[in-house]
UniProtKB/TrEMBL annotation:
Gene expressing this chain: nth
Swiss-Prot/TrEMBL keywords: 4Fe-4S, DNA damage, DNA repair, DNA-binding, Endonuclease, Glycosidase, Hydrolase, Iron, Iron-sulfur, Lyase, Metal-binding, Nuclease
Co-factor note (free text): Binds 1 [4Fe-4S] cluster.
Keyword Zinc-finger recorded: no
Function statement: DNA repair enzyme that has both DNA N-glycosylase activity and AP-lyase activity. The DNA N-glycosylase activity releases various damaged pyrimidines from DNA by cleaving the N-glycosidic bond, leaving an AP (apurinic/apyrimidinic) site. The AP-lyase activity cleaves the phosphodiester bond 3' to the AP site by a beta-elimination, leaving a 3'-terminal unsaturated sugar and a product with a terminal 5'-phosphate.
Name of this chain's protein: Endonuclease III
Species for this entry: Candidatus Xianfuyuplasma coldseepsis
EC number in record: 4.2.99.18
Length: 213
């Protein structure tokens, strides 16, 4: 079995039910949740949106309050002022250009304020079922440790390499499994190397040896 197949097999064995952990009931809520998740954990976003989505249901709802009120509703997470401003701008564009609906194309999604390639990829993958690999901090770290990308690759280069190496029909599923692997096993600090079935394929122990040597 080659290294990519081995990695996919192990990820599937470890996290067979990996899926998006951002709580949402529709594409609009998912888009808001992903926008809020920048530099914040999914757990923190879910704690916030549990009350946020009871107050705001539609793009109109987010626009009917002053920016300062929305900022206060978001202040429990980082960058809340920028996120509040982008959410209101995004909601206005949804109403003006997309009949209040979340667009289903990469190009259209990336025209929305606060929506970059990663956010668009998550929405396309999770809500619209389009094969995508969204490279967040976990996917980037795991890809580089498992030698699926070079250490100096940027996130776009990591995404391109993963798309070349992983079968298209496994992109979205693998994206979730890599996030779970990075979030619960191959963590940034103190990864569980001693019990990792992918240790032989990983460059991380060697990095440690060099650092400790």
């Amino acid at each position: 079995m080659d290294r990519v197949k081995t990695i996919l097999h192990v990820l599937n064995e470890m996290f067979p039910n990996a899926q998006c952990e951002l709580v949402h009931n529709n594409g609009f809520e998912l888009l808001i949740a992903v926008m809020l998740s920048a530099q914040t954990t999914d757990k923190s976003v879910n704690l916030l949106t549990d009350s946020l989505f009871k107050k705001y249901h539609t793009p109109q709802d987010f626009l009917q309050v002053p920016l300062e009120e929305l900022e206060q509703d978001l202040r429990r997470i980082g960058l809340y002022k920028n996120k509040a401003k982008n959410i209101q701008k995004m909601c206005q564009i949804l109403l003006d250009q997309f009949d209040g609906e979340v667009p289903s194309s990469q190009v259209e999604l990336e025209t929305l304020p606060g929506v970059g390639r990663k956010t668009a990829n998550v929405v396309l993958s999770v809500w619209f079922g389009v094969p995508r690999i969204a490279v967040d901090t976990h996917v980037e770290r795991v890809s580089k440790r498992l030698k699926l990308a070079y250490l100096n690759d940027n996130v776009h280069q990591v995404e391109e390499k993963l798309m070349r190496k992983i079968p298209r029909d496994k992109w979205s599923d693998t994206h979730h499994k890599m996030i779970f692997f990075g979030r619960y096993h191959c963590t940034a600090r103190n990864p569980k190397c001693d019990e990792c079935p992918l240790q032989d394929l990983c460059r991380y122990p060697n990095i440690n040896v060099r650092k400790n040597g």
